[in-house]
Amino acid sequence: MHIPDGYISPATALAFYGAVLPFWWTAAQRLKRILTGQLVPALALFSAFTFAIMMFNVPVPGGVPTMSRPGPRPRGATAAASGGRSSGPRGTSAGSPQPGE
């Protein structure tokens, strides 16, 4: 997740940078010791492969219902998202008889 600009005060940001600095230093020292020989080219190759695979759109059976997609949504998607308690017209539960039917 990304934090919008100006959301964290400069004092808070500096405090957290100071708190994380020892962990960054320890990680950098470990990387200097571990990244030798054939490990760096292998990591680069695997990273490129992973990036290339992410460029393909893999279809998902049934699709993925989202709220940002325009148009009608399947009834099951709405009921599943609300735990089976989707409401119909006038606040009644979906599928229950309406007054006057």
Element-level helix/strand string:
HHH
| Quaternary organization | single chain
Query: How much of the residues is beta strand, in percent?
Result: under 5%
Please work out how many helical segments DSSP would assign: 3
List the helices and strands and how they pair.
Blueprint: H1 10-34, H2 39-54, H3 75-81
Which descriptors would you attach to this protein?
mainly alpha; 3 helices
Please summarize what this structure is.
The protein contains 3 helices and no strands. The protein has helices spanning 10-34, 39-54, 75-81.
Task: Give structural notes.
- The chain starts with 9 loop residues before the first helix and ends in a 20-residue tail after the last helix.
- By secondary structure, the protein is mainly α.
- It has a domain at 8-52.
- The model has no long low-confidence stretch (mean pLDDT 76).
- It has 3 helices and no strands.
- It is 48% helix and 0% strand.
